[in-house]
Amino acid sequence: MKPIELTDVEKSYGEATSLEAISLSFEPGWHIVLGPNGAGKTTLFRLLLGLTDPDAGQLSIPDGSVGCSFQEPQVYEGLTVRENLETFGEIAGASTDWLETLLERCGLTRMGHRPAGALSAGFRSRLDVALAFVNRPDIVLLDEPLADVDDEYVGRLREFFLEYAGPDRLFVVATHHHDRFIEIADTVTILADGRVQWTGDPATASTHDGDITELYRDSISVDET
Amino acid sequence: MRGIGPLLRKDIAWGKHRLAALLVLFVLVPAVVAGGTLFFEHTLPENSPIAITPTDEDVTEADLDVVRGGVAFVSDPKIVDSRDAAFSQLRREQVYAVIEVPPGITDTDGSATIDISVHGSVTIYRMPSQVLGTMLSDSLDEMLPADITGERHVIGDRKSLSEYLLPTMAMLVVMLVAFAYVPAVLAREAQVFDRLRLDSSLHRLVVAKLVFVTGLVLVSLGVIYLVGRLLGYGLQPPSVVAVGVLVLSFLGLSGLSISISFATDFSDAGRVLNVVCFFVLVVLSNLAYPAGFFSPLSKFVARHNPLHYAMIVVRSELLRSVPARVYAPWIAAVAVVAGLSLSGMWLMIETYKRGH
Questions:
Q1: B256: domain range?
Q2: What is the pLDDT of residues A136-169, one digit of tens each?
Q3: Contact yes or no for B199 and A75 at CB 8 A
Q4: What is the pTM of this model?
Q5: Does B191 fall in a domain?
Q6: N or C end: fewer C-beta atoms under 10 angstroms in chain B?
Q7: Min Cα separation B195/chain A (Å)
Q8: Across the interface, do A68 and B195 touch by the CB < 8 Å criterion?
Q9: Half-sphere exposure of B43 (CA within 13 A, CB side)
Q10: Within an 8 Å CB–CB cutoff, is residue A89 touching chain B?
């Protein structure tokens, strides 16, 4: 699969600049986009999903199916967990076996009959994550995927993500919890105020002795000053 | 305890965030409601159109003009040269009465009878037409040497007010679903718009929603018809034309309400605006009352409103046995307006997508 390429991409909403001259390349593998709230992560995801167009610059997304979990879970609150999966599964042409697998891997089997609107924030996040995989995507975008998930399940979901990813699939995870995905990341991009503050292999954060946490803190604090 | 001060300030802050909705609800709506009184000037149908037609070729223009002058205070009379054309207009509610003028009423000193025909299915005009007959007799007796008698005839089946109102209720249900239910269920979908757009589209979502709700509307129309039959109303068998026109009306109105919803980003202001549209269209369409019942302005607006014609077609199909082909131009117009409304909705969804 070809990489996702962004070249000098800009995006504004009215007067507010959300992304400014962003140039990035995402090869198959794991890519973590770190940044505080309002850094432009969600706008970057909307561009990658094709939900909005850049105002300037070039965006190249390879052919292949895309799945996404959203910062605010996008689920039908009036449908049960199972009905949500069946609805989006049918749209995507997913098999029943795959939907059962998703229910099981995301720890939702016992919640299948519950209306999504009656779920706790953690379970709603898990359902949103499950929905990201119904179409067996080649490109997976996860926007703050584990923010509301309890620690016990963070590990199990990460295990599922890694199994699913294999060598050929492309994962981009946006988060401001910089400790949850760093060890599996092929690249880390630090966004702040709509600009790329740093991008590269986390092991090569040489000026900070490979400590991405410190680099992230420095990037954010530099930006804030 | 700090009293209501903090809570009141909270409401003021809340109001600032919903200024558009509050302006619509507390400024636009009262203005529209107050302005709406312009449409109600009379309690009698002083401006309802009626046809004056000669019984034969010997009737002069002077004869027709005298009769027209005699009923001008209580109607909007127009001369129709052909009797058949006049009665065709009566069946289509283009006129609400036909006055047939015999020859020589202006130069005879004997007696003459002028026939006034109304349709039995336009229940709401039957009583006012008695005033028309009385006015005609009185005014012509004063103006002419002849002894003029106005004789009233009711053609077609006589329908009770309850029977007459059943098609109106069906249209009101269609309007209510279009302006209240459709925007509400679509607003609930807004929470998953982004996810749906990945593997499907907003257009497909809206089409599916319209298909589903159209099915529900058909169920409710069936219920209305069955209740009418159970109550012993003299209804014609349900026709494809009646159902088709109601469905076209529903789709046209839903196109408008969905456009408003997308244009206002499913906000409170949009919801209120849709409710305003419902009431405005109810007032401006003369769904139950004849055009011109309340004022010339009300007649003018109703006669330029496709919903008014849709209502006449549905009423005719359910209460009268008039061939549907008579209404072909109106049905085509309703279909065109529905098509335009849905096209506008399509463009509005595109605009919404570009803005998000």
A1: 161-355
A2: 999 999 998 877 888 778 888 888 999 999 888 9
A3: no
A4: 0.86
A5: yes
A6: N
A7: 6
A8: yes
A9: 0
A10: no
